[in-house]
Every structure is written in structure tokens, then in C-alpha cells.
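Session log. Operator J.P. requested a structure for one protein chain; no other inputs attached. Running the standard single-chain path with C-alpha cell output.
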Amino acid sequence: MKILIVEDEPLIADLIAESLEGDGFEIAGIAGTLAHALDLAGSLRFDAAILDVNLDGESVAPVAEALRARSIPFAIMSGYSARQLPASLGGAPVLSKPVPLDKLLSMMRLLANPVETKAALPDNPPTAV
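Structure written below.
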């Protein structure tokens, strides 16, 4: 399964990539800016994404919209509470930062199986995991 990582902190992005690769995932790409994330979200082939909600002060919402348009599942990472997130991110699972490695890997495994994901994630506003 190929994963897109959208995270503006290079050390965190590298840690996520190493952790996912160690669990058998392939990294399709890593984006640290909104512009780069939008480019990769529209041009790469991948199965799921993990998105930092805030990219150097810019909302990741346009990337989420692009992924939804392509029917690509994603999870949000945020230091904000689920209630503080924009409504445009509604329905996406939220991993609260700092994200424990086991929760990140579990979420990405869940996103890897669309049937299980639909059953596990109701169409509601963002919820913290």
C-alpha cells in the first residue's frame, strides 16, 4: 500500500515514513507545503494519506478536498482538538499529536482496507482517535 505523507516538520515526516516503511507500507511521496501537497495529491498514485492539519500556517483542507475528489482515504494529524478543526475536514479520522506510533500504524492499516474503514468511520465531524 502506497501512502502520501503531508507534514511540514521534516523530522516528523521522516519518522512517519520510517515507521510506515518498517510496517510494510511504501511511501508514495512526502510534501511539506500546501502547494507541494496539492501537486502530489493530484499527480501521484497512492492508496491513502496522512495529513498534518496545519502546513506552516496554511490549512490542509484543499488537499483533503482533492483527496475526496479522487476517493482516496486519509487521516488528519493535529495538535488541535477535533472541535477546533475546520468543518471541511468533517468525517476524517483525527490522530492527536503527538501521535503514538501504534495508533498511526493502526489507522493506516484501517485505511488500507476500504470496507473496514467505511464501517469504522461514520460520516460525522472529525473525531479524535
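Operator note: The chain has one domain: 2-128.
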